[in-house]
Design a protein that fits this description.
Blueprint: E1 3-9, H1 18-28, E2 36-42, E3 48-54, H2 56-59, H3 63-67, E4 75-79, E5 82-87, H4 91-99, E6 104-110, E7 113-119, H5 122-128, E8 138-144, E9 159-162, E10 165-173, H6 176-185, H7 195-208, H8 213-223, E11 226-233, E12 238-242, E13 251-254, E14 258-262, E15 278-280, E16 288-290
Antiparallel strand pairs: 1-8, 1-14, 2-7, 2-8, 3-5, 3-6, 4-5, 9-10, 10-11, 11-12, 12-16, 13-14, 13-15
Helix pairs in contact: 6-7, 7-8
């Protein structure tokens, strides 16, 4: 049992409050996933942003000095043990540079996405990252009850395996080991043994092959064995899919200002004018998408 949440802002007037809105949603899902938590914020930039997690030794070093003359025009934003590195250097070069730094783990990259995740009670994780201060256009989050892999930062959601892409998942996949081997042969890299990372890699690999997000998720209904509710984020929005059995809960609230989704309605009870929203459960096996 995990908790997943997402909010897409149709009205730009709410973008300054994105972090506050997501904070309430994450806190209200803490009981569904007490082991770890994470979130992805989408806030577009003209430069590339690389979200990285630092180990204890590297946190005490000067990251700017380590990156000097390796990345162009860098700007660093440090939040707890994570740093968002903003630079004009493209991923083809930047990812190689960052991988060479011992004690640094890339958790996401793109011109919009910023990812933060940690082990611990979701309410504590949200507070450590000062989520309420973030702004942006849309966001997704996850509170985890560990079942498929260890309670580590690597085992935490969201998982990002492509530029400005990420995935959160409530459920379990039974064929992830076979699918992992197939994707590795196609050049997809994995950092954990978590089944959700395999699903993220499946989606990224399909998008890389010029398939649409809707077609990718629809194909997943036959290729991903198990039960799940997915929220997959992209630069422009997000999409939601429940498997055809739909044993994992989900509810959507939509009005003229935003679309919100969560495992339980209580996660959305604090949202503005939610009592006037169209509230419904996503149908099994149907892709719902906003902004894409």
């Amino acid at each position: 049992m995990c908790g997943i949440v997402g909010i897409y802002l149709k009205n730009k007037k709410h973008q300054k409050d994105l972090g506050k809105l997501l904070t309430g949603m994450m806190n209200n899902m803490a009981s569904r996933g007490p082991d770890s938590a994470g979130f992805a914020i989408y806030d577009k930039s003209n430069k590339y942003k690389y979200s990285v997690c630092l180990n204890a030794d590297l946190q005490n070093q000067n990251l700017s000095k380590l990156l000097k003359n390796k990345l162009s025009a860098i700007k660093l934003k440090k939040v707890s043990d994570h740093v968002v590195i903003e630079t004009s250097t493209k991923p083809e070069k930047a990812i190689g540079v960052l991988k060479d730094i011992q004690g640094l783990d890339i958790v996401g990259y793109g011109k919009s996405i910023e990812i933060f995740k940690q082990v611990g009670n979701p309410k504590d994780v949200v507070k450590k990252f000062s989520l309420d201060k973030f702004t942006g256009s849309h966001a997704i989050g996850h509170t985890r009850m560990a079942t498929e892999s260890a309670i580590t930062t690597d085992g935490s959601h969201p998982y990002s395996t492509g530029e400005d892409e990420c995935l959160v998942h409530n459920g379990s996949l039974s064929n992830h080991n076979n699918l992992r081997r197939s994707l590795v042969k196609n050049g997809v890299e994995f950092k954990s043994l978590n089944d959700t990372e395999v699903a993220a890699g499946y989606i990224s690999n399909s998008l890389k092959n010029k398939n649409s997000l809707k077609d990718t998720l629809t194909s997943g209904l036959k290729d991903l064995d198990g039960f799940y509710t997915f929220i997959t984020g992209t630069r422009n929005g997000f999409a939601v899919l429940r498997d055809e059995i739909a044993c994992k809960p989900a509810v959507i609230a939509e009005n003229s200002d935003y679309v919100a989704i969560a495992s339980e309605f209580q996660a959305m009870a604090h949202l503005p004018n939610v009592n006037k929203a169209d509230i419904y459960e996503p149908k099994p096996g149907v892709v719902y998408s906003w902004g894409n």
